[in-house]
């Protein structure tokens, strides 16, 4: 064998040995770094070392600054605070695999709640997604089982009780709620790539694109009118690059491959799309144009000057619609009421029933369920003038029509919360007052029967807005030959 060929092979062999030595040193350096990180976190004796990873942080998205912009816009034009809650935002894509489970997050509602929280005090959040604990405690309160370790005075001159008095109305209503779903996930809607090699030395590059779609709507909680719908989609791109060498140098083989893959997290794309849709919905219910805030967030280079310009563009439609500020304060918007913090128990304990509500209850006419409602003031058994008038008209009608029968429900404020014995006694006194009023207006006493009274275990029977049923009476048909 020629001497030059042997020298060439020797050079190649030494080169490969040097490359292998460098690779081994790099591997050892990496292992040393890992070991150092392991040693940085002290562990109790006889426990395996735990490798610390990256620290946790806020889960930010590209839409963070858009929420800052919109919240500032709310304050700039003094948009009234609205109460918003979230319903189901489900995964409707149906994408599922045995190995990896659901392809799309099942926590769309939770993402929406977190996004609403980024509006700060501009929006009041109401919990409606998981109310099991609150409903359980309300049930305990109804049965007088819920306490706070203190004694409470329910009524003046009566012994204090260990349960928490519940006067109703503690749960604030919502103005709007948001529902919808994740409706699309389309894989590899476009892909491209290139690969080249010369003498088994080369590289490759590949890109692919997929997308997700979200449909949301915001609904008026009182009228169930859909105020705004949005359908948003976002493309997600991934890249892959690589290089390699595969060659024989004489009897020695050199095989090296390197590469990397990068892709935007799929679920982060879903979160960003939900947040973009939420910004559009919030703009719709406030009369603002959210698009300038979205553009401000996506175009980067954030500074105070650009933020103010985005706020001005966002509030412009509302300012143009309202016109110049009036000399006198404008009346509050009827569709969005300002929130007022009041002590409901104090406000209703000694306040007469509102006239419109009382008029409806003491009208002497049958309601939707075929019964007549008679209202009483809390903790009182006497009939007011409106109730007496209603019973007079009802009694005369029943006396004139002997074949007529009617059910009568006795109601009072939901704020009335008495011990069971006292509650039953007061209900009996109220039933007697109604019965006496009917007899005084010509109804035969034998026609009046007591259908229901609360017992010791009876929970409060709520009816209507802030009312409860305390007793039920039944006026039956007159018996034949009774002389009436």
Entry keywords:
six-stranded mixed beta sheet; 35% helix; 484 residues; 60s Ribosomal Protein L30, Chain: A; Rossmann fold; 11 helices; 3 domains; 15 strands; five-stranded mixed beta sheet; single chain; alpha+beta
Structure description:
This protein is an alpha+beta fold and 484 residues long. It has 3 domains: 1-28; 64-128 and 174-322, ABC-type transport auxiliary lipoprotein component (Rossmann fold, 3-Layer(aba) Sandwich), CATH 3.40.50.10610; 344-475, 60s Ribosomal Protein L30, Chain: A (2-Layer Sandwich), CATH 3.30.1330. 35% of the residues lie in helices and 28% in strands. The chain has helices at 3-40, 64-76, 108-117, 132-142, 266-286, 291-298, 304-322, 344-349, 355-361, 385-400, 420-440; strands spanning 82-91, 96-97, 101-102, 123-126, 147-152, 161-163, 176-198, 201-220, 226-249, 252-263, 371-375, 406-413, 448-452, 461-463, 467-475. The protein has a 6-stranded mixed beta sheet with strand order 4-1-7-8-9-10. Strands 11, 12, 13, 14 and 15 form a 5-stranded mixed beta sheet that branches. A hairpin with an 8-residue loop joins β5 (147-152) and β6. The N and C termini lie far apart (140 Å). Mean pLDDT is 81; it is low at 325-330 and 332-360.
């Amino acid at each position: 064998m020629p001497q030059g060929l042997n020298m060439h092979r020797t050079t190649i062999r030494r080169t490969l040995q040097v490359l292998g030595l460098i690779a081994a040193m790099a591997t050892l350096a990496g292992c040393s770094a890992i070991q150092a990180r392991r040693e940085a976190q002290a562990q109790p004796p006889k426990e395996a070392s735990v490798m610390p990873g990256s620290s946790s942080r806020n889960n930010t998205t590209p839409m963070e600054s858009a929420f800052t912009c919109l919240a500032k816009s709310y304050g700039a034009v003094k948009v009234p605070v609205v109460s918003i809650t979230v319903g189901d935002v489900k995964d409707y894509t149906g994408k599922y695999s045995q190995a990896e489970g659901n392809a799309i997050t099942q926590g769309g509602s939770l993402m929406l709640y977190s996004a609403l929280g980024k509006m700060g005090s501009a929006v009041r959040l109401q919990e409606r997604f998981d109310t099991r604990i609150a409903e359980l405690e309300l049930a305990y309160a109804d049965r007088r089982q819920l306490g706070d370790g203190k004694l409470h005075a329910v009524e003046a001159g009566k012994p204090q009780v260990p349960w928490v008095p519940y006067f109703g109305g503690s749960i604030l209503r919502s103005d709007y709620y948001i529902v919808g779903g994740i409706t699309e996930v389309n894989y590899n809607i476009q892909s491209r790539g290139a690969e080249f090699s010369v003498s088994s030395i080369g590289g490759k590059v590949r890109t692919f694109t997929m997308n997700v779609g979200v449909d949301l709507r915001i609904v008026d909680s009182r009228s169930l009118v859909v105020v705004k719908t949005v359908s948003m989609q976002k493309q997600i791109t991934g890249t892959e690059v690589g290089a390699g060498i595969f060659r024989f140098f004489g009897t020695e083989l050199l095989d090296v491959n390197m590469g990397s893959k990068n892709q935007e997290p799929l679920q982060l794309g879903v979160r960003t799309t939900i947040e973009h849709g939420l910004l559009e919905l919030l703009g719709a219910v406030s009369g603002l144009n959210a698009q300038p805030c979205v553009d401000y967030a996506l175009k980067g280079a954030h500074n105070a000057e650009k933020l103010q310009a985005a706020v001005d563009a966002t509030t412009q439609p509302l300012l143009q619609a309202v016109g110049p500020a009036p000399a006198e304060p404008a009346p509050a918007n009827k569709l969005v009421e300002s929130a007022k913090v009041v002590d409901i128990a104090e406000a209703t304990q000694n306040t007469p029933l509102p006239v419109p509500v009382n008029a409806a209850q003491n009208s002497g006419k049958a309601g939707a369920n075929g019964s007549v409602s008679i209202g009483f003031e809390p903790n009182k058994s006497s009939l007011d003038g409106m109730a007496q008038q209603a019973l007079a008209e009802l009694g005369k009608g029943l006396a004139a029509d002997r074949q007529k029968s009617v059910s009568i429900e006795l109601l009072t404020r939901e704020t009335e919360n008495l011990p069971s014995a006292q509650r039953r006694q007061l209900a009996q006194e109220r039933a007697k007052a109604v019965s006496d009023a009917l007899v005084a207006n010509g109804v035969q006493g034998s026609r009046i029967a007591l259908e229901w009274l609360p017992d010791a275990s009876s929970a409060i029977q709520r009816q209507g807005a802030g009312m409860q049923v305390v007793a039920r009476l039944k006026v039956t048909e007159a018996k034949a030959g009774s002389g009436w």
